[in-house]
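It would be a great kindness if you could assist me with a short task in structural biology. The matter concerns a single protein, recorded as an amino acid sequence and a row of backbone structure tokens. Kindly check, if you would, that the fold set down in the tokens agrees with what the sequence suggests. Thank you for your consideration; the sequence and its tokens are set out here:
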Amino acid sequence: MTITLVLVAGGLVGLGLFLCVRELFPAPPQLAAALDRFALPTRRLATDIAPDTRAAHVGRWLAAHIAGTALDVRIPRRDLALIGKSMEEYLVHKLAMTGFGLAVPTMLWDLLMPPVPWLVSTGSTLAYAAIMFAAPDIALRSQAREAREEFTAALIAYLDLIKMARAGGAGPGEALEAPARVCRGWAFQRIAATLDPAARGTRDPWDELARLADRIGVRELADTAAIARRAGTQGAAILDSLTAKAASLREQQLAAALARAKSRTETMTLPVALSVLGYLILLGYPAYARITGA
């Protein structure tokens, strides 16, 4: 019986560690999946309707009961809108992770661990539950950061296409809509859905772009909307502005890539130094053993 409890407890601990590592450090995508992402949209639109499942019902119940509270204010709605995840899914995920964080330490303390003061067991259980409660937020921020980088890269190409359309004589509204319709990818799909005349109604396309930028938290898209608004309302020439904006975004991406490369190079300094030290010890140990043995 004791061996069975030990195996069960060990399995629960391993499952908890696996979930923590998977949430905090997502695995890199496979090459085929990364290439398919450029051909097919990989993120749902914000207008997708959530399925009518039990989890959706629980999520709507949670959203209704936390409305107006501090938890409601802290929900990262922009990150959720960017990656195409509903608030109900997010709340159910946090509830499940928190319940797991409360259940696993309680079972371990009851089945495996020796008796300890209640303050220690309760404190460790609450600490683990707090970690699991924060894990979905950490994973969501990481996914949103990658999504914004992808969106910015697509926006650079979008600016170049707008510039070409304007140079070809297209109006401000047509120059915004045409590139989004012909290009593929989740970022262009999101822009095309925003600029769809049937869904837009009588609103101007640059106002819809500004609304999308505020909803997903992409400041560069708001700048693009401001440039288009000047062309549409004031008749301003925007080719130079579009060229300067695209060049600025490229420089920012290059600087960010160089910073990441330097950071990763610096993190390799300690492993390389330890490897060299181990190699020197391996080479010098026979001579040292011979000297001390003599």
